[in-house]
Amino acid sequence: MPTDQTTPPASSDVTPQTARALVVPRHGGSDALSVTDREIPAPGPGEVRVQVAASGVNFIDVYQREGVYPIPTPFTLGVEMAGTVEAVGEGVDDVQVGDRVAQAMNLGSHAELAVFAADRLVPVPDDVDLEVAAAAMLQGCTAHFLVTDTFPVGPDTTALVHAAAGGVGQLLVQLIKAQGGTVVATAGSPDKLETARSAVRTT
C-alpha cells in the first residue's frame, strides 16, 4: 500500500518542539506551581540555551512564588543550575555547544531547557559533577563573599560559624580553613557537629 504523504513520521524521528518547565502562573502557595510544556526557547544575541542537568531549590524560590519578592507572572521558577550548552546565539564567542556551565541568581532554571546570558555563566570543570556544581553556586557565592568581602579571613582569624552543618556552613568551614583561619562551629545535634567536622577533614 502506498505511503500516505500526510502521515507524520515515527515518533523517534520527530524533533521535540516543547520542553517542560516549572511555571508560576500566579503568586500563591505550592498549589500555584504548574509543570508546563512550553515552546523550546531560542537564544538571542549574547545568549545560550542550556540543557539543565540539575537546578537548585532555595528559599528565594518560595519568596518569589508567594510574591514576597514580586515578579510579574507567569514566570519559570529557579535561580541556580548547572548543565550543558545546547545552542548559542549571535555574538557568543566565549561559550560553545557542549560546554559544561553553571549559574546563579538568573531566573528560569527549573526547566529542562533554559536560556541565559552567556556572560552570566561560569565553566564547570570536567571532574566536578553537574549536580554538585548546581548545589554549590548560590551557597558558594554566599560563603565566598563572607570570607573575602565581608571580612577577609586569614591565618590570624578565629571565626564562629553557626549552623555549620548546613550548605553555607560547610562551605564556610572549608573556606576559612583553606585560608588558614580557625573555626569554632555550632550545630543542632551531635550528628550535625560530625558533619561539620567532616567538612574540615575534606579541606
Automatic annotation (TrEMBL):
Question: Which InterPro entries does UniProt cross-reference here?
Answer: ADH-like_N, ER, GroES-like_sf, NAD(P)-bd_dom_sf
Keyword field contains Oxidoreductase = yes
UniProt KW Manganese keyword: no
Q: What Gene3D superfamilies does the record tag this protein with? A: Medium-chain alcohol dehydrogenases, catalytic domain, NAD(P)-binding Rossmann-like Domain
User: Which Pfam families does this UniProt record tie to the protein?
Assistant: ADH_N (PF08240)
Keyword vocabulary terms for this entry: NADP, Oxidoreductase
Enoyl reductase (ER) domain sequence ranges: 28-203
- Name-wise, this protein is Enoyl reductase (ER) domain-containing protein
Q: Which organism is it from?
A: Arsenicicoccus piscis
